[in-house]
Design brief:
Helix content: 25-40%
Radius of gyration: 20 Å
CATH topology of the largest domain: Isopropylmalate Dehydrogenase
Number of strands: 11
Shape: globular
CATH superfamily of the largest domain: Isopropylmalate Dehydrogenase
Number of helices: 11
Distance between the termini: 39 Å
CATH architecture of the largest domain: 3-Layer(aba) Sandwich
CATH class of the largest domain: Alpha Beta
Order of helices and strands: HEHEHEHEHHEEHHEHEEHEEH
Length: 333
């Protein structure tokens, strides 16, 4: 569902309307049916909504109606007006979706954008979706090391540190964290993207990757040992590369994923070249999770200005990852 006051309902409705043109696999909306119907009316979108009690009911009705598994809200939420009262329903929808994926009721979880600052005011204890999903998996007894990967326009990029202040990055960045993030990334590329020997490129932390220590010692002291450790495990890893020369078109041909040392170092290039079609993938979970690579956009919710391209890309990628994972598990024919 995402934040009900944001564009999540809008882009869900528009994605269903484009289900045939985009050849989308069946999906269900976990949220408030009344909200969805009210938003459809507001947008002038002719989308029939059918309430289901089990996700297995979604596929038979998907061609003629948008299936909705109810997660009711205590009161009406209007487009563009976020409400603390909706926070429990937002987290409940995520919890229900994760349970469905872990129990085999769904092939993947595709999340609409949430407003982290709204959830935090309501007591949400996690920096974002990524960390919450990992906690939910671990609570069910599954191993989980969630790693965020952004995909789009031929680029895959992973921030090693994520939702922390820039000033905290040097202390949070460790050789062990880089090594573990790279391992999870490589395994995800093998399992879900069919890349047998993933090529990883690591950025430096400082300008010019530290210029041999002249512009900072973290690159040599933290990142170089991580690269050496990963190479010793047989992984194809290069770096540390200056971040300002790693993301142009020619450079992108030399790696399958780039690991960046902090949030904006990773997200600026992906949002520059694939702003409307970027997809957020969480690797390291016992289930597939994707989401649009954008926020709630409260200012345009309910106006018809939101574009569903990123959600459509997230839905299509989730289906492709599920198919690839099945082929990988089955092995060669």
């Amino acid at each position: 569902m995402g934040d009900p006051a944001g564009i999540g309902p809008d882009i869900t409705l528009m994605s269903w309307l484009r289900r045939d043109a985009e050849n989308l696999s069946p999906f269900a909306f976990l949220g408030d049916p009344a909200l969805l119907m009210q938003r459809a009316k507001q947008l002038g979108a002719a989308v029939p909504v059918t309430t289901i009690s089990d996700l297995r009911e979604a596929e038979p009705v998907f061609a003629r109606a948008l299936p909705v598994l109810p997660c009711p809200m205590p009161e009406q939420v209007l487009a563009g007006r976020p409400s603390l009262s909706a926070a429990p329903a937002v987290t409940s929808a995520i919890e229900r979706a994760v349970a469905a994926a872990l129990d085999g009721e769904a092939l993947a979880v595709v999340t609409n954008p949430i407003a982290k600052h709204i959830l935090a005011k309501a007591g949400f204890a996690h920096p974002g979706h990524t960390e919450f999903l990992g906690a939910l998996a671990r609570a069910r007894g599954f191993a989980a090391t969630p790693v965020m990967m952004l995909c789009g326009a031929g680029l895959r990029v992973v921030p090693v540190t994520i939702h922390i202040p820039l000033a905290a990055v040097p202390d949070a960045l460790t050789t062990a964290l880089i090594v573990e993030t790279a391992r999870v990334t490589a395994r995800g590329l093998q399992l879900y993207f069919g890349i047998a020997q993933p090529r990883l490129a690591l950025t430096g932390l400082n300008p010019h990757a530290g210029e041999e220590g002249m512009l900072g010692r973290e690159d040599q002291a933290i990142i170089v040992p991580a690269i050496a450790a990963l190479r010793a495990e047989g992984m194809q890893v290069t770096g540390p590369h200056p971040a300002d020369t790693l993301f142009h078109e020619r450079a992108r041909q030399n790696y399958d994923a780039a690991l960046a040392m902090y949030h904006d170092q990773a997200l600026i290039p992906i949002k520059t070249i694939a702003f409307d079609e970027g997809v957020n993938v969480t690797l390291g979970l016992p289930f597939i999770r994707t989401s649009p690579d954008h926020g709630t956009a409260f200012d345009i919710a309910g106006t018809g200005k939101a574009r569903p391209d990123s959600l459509i890309a997230a839905l299509r990628l989730a289906a492709a990852m599920a198919e690839q994972a099945g082929e990988t598990a089955a092995g060669p024919a």
